[in-house]
Amino acid sequence: MRIAIDAMGGDHGPAMTVAGALLAAKEWSDVEIVLVGDEGKITGHLSGGTLPANVKILHAADVIAADDEPARAVRRKKDASMVVAGRLIREGEADAMISAGNTGALMATGLLVVGRIDGIERPALAPMLPTMDGSGFLALDLGANMDSTPDNLLQYAIMGSIYRNKVNGLPKPRVGLLNVGTEAGKGNELTKAAYPLLEQAPIHFVGNVEAREVLHGNCDVLVCDGFAGNILLKSMEGTAEFVFKALKTEFTRSFMSKLAAAILKPGLSAFKKKMDYSEHGAAPLLGINGLMLKCHGPSDANAFKNAVRQARIALSNGLVGAISTETSRKRDG
């Protein structure tokens, strides 16, 4: 299998993308990695200037910046590393691509360059978010689409369920609908209309889930529109930041509190790591006719290596084909 990496994307590209690619190439000899980007800058981060046999470089002279207007940049910057990686998927020269670059541009690349799976109206960005038991849950959509229809939520539920099955090995993923109450009649017009569709879908639907419950692991897939999902994500980020800043303040008030902090530090560090959603890997862009994974902007080498692992598992288990088959079955039925 061949996986393209946007070597120039992210806060630390190409240093971290190259380092991560080398780690992945060493770990999995059945994977060929294509580093897409400025060849001179990429080779500058190679130890001794040599590449393993299963790593290639494809030169791309341009880069899509974080502040570029996504769709315009994708249309105009034909030789940008992200766009070139997307073309590799479209032309069958790569099976997957990974990028830590501009999220909006990656979505535009998926739509304008790679294309959607037939029958999928809107692709969804689906990161894994943490739970107290460490298992996490897949949430979609968390910002790719601000406005969704009941049919969109149905497609998100099906794609999310297939992903958790194919990539995480869950035989019967529990799918919940983000709502303001657990009763079936609760919610706005969107969730009220989506609820019966999810009940009838080929998934294990567990009903409505309130935001305060999601960290307790009561579902494996959480379905929502991008507006509510992004608010959920930002609220979780803000709360975590507040809690840890407050703890730091309290633990530095006195000698005794500093002593207590020293004793508790290993446990607090482990807890912080467990609750950091960036530790849960790259987010797939589901609904695109090819595997696309979005890493966090500040991803390090290990994060890129783990993204390759995710891609390898998804490809081995036919994730995109399974989504396409289920979509066709629903459309024909």
Task: Walk me through this protein's architecture.
The chain is α/β, with parallel strands linked by helices and 333 residues long. The protein folds into two domains: 2-118 and 287-332, 3-Layer(aba) Sandwich (Isopropylmalate Dehydrogenase); 128-277, Isopropylmalate Dehydrogenase, CATH 3.40.718. It is 46% helix and 16% strand. It has helices at residues 15-27, 39-43, 70-76, 81-90, 103-114, 150-168, 189-200, 226-251, 255-274, 301-316, 319-332; strands at 2-6, 32-37, 55-59, 96-99, 124-125, 128-129, 137-140, 174-179, 204-210, 221-223, 283-286, 291-294. Strands 3-2-1-4-12-11-5 form a seven-stranded mixed sheet, with helices on both faces. Strands 6-7-10-8-9 form a five-stranded mixed sheet, sandwiched between helices. A hairpin with a 7-residue loop joins strand 6 (128-129) and strand 7 (137-140). Helix 4 runs parallel beside helix 5. It is globular and about 60 Å long. Homodimer. Probably interacts with PlsY. It is found in: Cytoplasm. Pathway: Lipid metabolism; phospholipid metabolism. Catalyzes the reversible formation of acyl-phosphate (acyl-PO(4)) from acyl-[acyl-carrier-protein] (acyl-ACP). This enzyme utilizes acyl-ACP as fatty acyl donor, but not acyl-CoA.
